[in-house]
Amino acid sequence: MGDGVGTASGTGIGCGSGVASGAVLDSAEVLGDPHLRARGMIVDVDHPGRGRSPMPGNPIHLSASPTEVRPAPRLAEHNAEVYGALLDISATELAALQRDGVI
Q1: H or E element: which one contains 52?
Q2: Full-model pTM
C-alpha cells in the first residue's frame, strides 16, 4: 500500500474491521509464494527453449487422477504425428511439404 502499510498488515486491518479483503499480489509475489508452491499451485516446468520456468499448476488435485503440467508444444513439434498418424501422409511426403515451404 502506498501509505507504508504492507500487504499482510493491510489485509489484517480490513478483515479486523469487518471488511472483506485479501492481498493483491503481483506476478513475482504469486510465483514466489511458498504456500502456493507447497500446495502445487505453482510448479517449475522445463521448457526446451526457455529452460526452467515457474508456471501455474493444476488447481484441481484428485488422488486417483494426478496431473502433470508440461510446456506448450513448440511450433511444428508434433507435425510427424499429426500428418502421419492422423492424415496418413508418409515421411517422404512430409519432407517434400517441408522442403516446398507448405508447412
Answers
A1: strand 51-56
A2: 0.61
Gap between the Cα atoms of 54 and 92, Å rounded: 39
Tell me which residue of 54, 56, 57, 29 sits closest to 44, measured CA to CA: 54
Give the span between the Cα atoms of 28 and 52, in whole angstroms.
Answer: 15
3-state secondary structure of 53: strand
Confidence of residue 1 (pLDDT cuts 50, 70, 90): very low
Q: Do 43 and 70 meet the contact criterion of CB atoms below 8 Å apart?
A: no
Taking the C-alpha atoms of residue 67 and residue 63, their distance in angstroms, rounded to an integer, is 10
CA–CA gap between residue 52 and residue 44 (Å, rounded):
6
Residue 78, helix vs strand vs coil: coil
The identity of residue 37, as a single letter, is R
CA distance 14 to 18: 7
Task: Scan for cell 514466489, then name that residue.
Answer: 32
